[in-house]
Structure formats: structure tokens, C-alpha cells
Amino acid sequence: MGATRTIFRWGVERRLEFIEFRLFWEGRVNRSDLMGTFGVSINQASTDLNRYLGMAPNNMVYDKSARAYVRGDRFEPLFLKPDPASYLSQLRSISDGIVTQVETWVGQLPAFDKVHDPARGIDAGHLRAVLQAIHNGQAIEVEYQSLSSLDPRWRWIAPHAIAFDGFRWHARAWCFTDQCFKDFLLARILGTRDSRPSDVDRGQDADWHTMVTLEIGPHPGLSDAQKKVIALDYGMRNGKASITVRKAMLYYAIKRLGLDTDPSTRNPADQQIVLLNREVLDGVA
Predict the structure, then answer these.
(1) Is the pLDDT of residue 4 over 80?
(2) I want to staple 191 with a disulfide (CB 3.0 to 4.6 A). Which of 143, 154, 184, 223 is the partner?
(3) Which residues contact 239 (CB under 8 A, 6 or more apart)?
């Protein structure tokens, strides 16, 4: 394309990225899109479109009937690396009610839906207390309902991180009661009542700082045609895909992928994938 990027002010570059986003994903963009998203004047929107056209003349062409610029046949991204995960996450955030459509860059919503997870009862005040403890290097006293105890108990923890296992949010923390680093489900924190300085060294949480690579492949019981389909589903190359997780999150990753049972006990079409390097599970509870 021959275009070169120039260093712009952050606001200008964001608007140029927006133009490119709309061109790539929706095939068109106009002044109203810029005005509605960024609150700029009609003159500023025209300036931004002309600036982008000057930098990437092959990327868009003005369509008089549509009164908009449409994606050119020789379109090549200049500001963005189109990311399907980012686009789909915006759709998911809209579906979950986290953001409204006008808060994203998606102009034309496709028909879509998702399987909704059960609502997690995380208290805003409790989450704030955990976050403050992380930021300030403190320990906090929490009332926690564990699965192994009939009644909730008060205990001191020193949280240093939060993590999402695909379904639930956890606080990773040193437990002064059990004298070890472990996970605490945020939804099971029923109360907080005190805090204090903590000298717990979060660097000593070896499981949190150790990364483990899972190698997955199609179930050997599948046909060659089925294996090719599964390889496409999981982005496999040469019959395998690699997923890197923290050792502290390994248990959750294995369960979410359905790799926590013996693959020989399930129908290959249901199991679909197997763990190729099962030795990484040694010592995992």
C-alpha cells in the first residue's frame, strides 16, 4: 500500500483506528459515525476521513448513493490488526449488559446470542476491599463460606491477584489459617471487617508464577475427517495446539476443557480432544 504511519495525538489516532475498524468489519463509514461515537463536529469528522484517505488511498472509496466511504478492493489495515477475539468480545459484552452498543465501535449488530452463565453474587464492597488490599499490600479479615465447612468462618487473607476460571472469579491469596497460598471465590466472601499491613511476599506463590503449557490434540478415536474438523475448531497445527496457563489455574483449565476424566470412558465425539502431555498434571489436586 505504501502508506506510512505518522504520530498523532491520541484522540486523532483513535478516530483513525475507528475508521479502519468500521471499514474492515462493516465495509463502510461516514461522518455521522465519527460524530456519534466521538462527539466531534462535522468539520472534524470530514478532516479525519480526508486524513485517513490521504494516508491509505486504496482503503476506501466514496459511494455517492450510500453517502459513505466503502472499503476498497485493495484494503490493507494501517492502524489495526483485525482481531476476531476483540470483535466477538464486544458482542459478548453487549449481550452480558456490561456495555451498550453505543459504548463499542460496533455499528451494525449481527443477530447473535450466547449461553448465559448463572449470575454470580459478588458484593461490590467486598470486591473493593480485596482490590484495595492487593493495591496496598495489606491483609484483610473476611467471612468466608467454604464448601468443606457447614458455617462461614472469619479468617485473615493477604490477596495479591484476582483470576477468572471461565465461570467464576477468584482472589489468589495467602491464607493465615491454612498457612498457604490458595484461591478464594469472591462470591463466597460474605463480609469484611478489618485490614492490616502485610509482609507476605507474593513472589513466594510459586504456583501463581509458574506457567504450564497444555498440549491438546484430537481424540484418537475420531475419524480422520473428524480430526480435521476438531483441528479447525481449536486452531491446531500438525495435530496439536498449545495453551499456556498458570499452575495455580491448571485445575480449572483442565475442567473447563473437559480433560479431567479418562478420555477412554467417553464417546470420542463427545470428548473431542485429549491432553497429549498428561505429565503436567502430576501433583495437581
Answers:
(1) no
(2) 143
(3) 217, 218, 227, 231
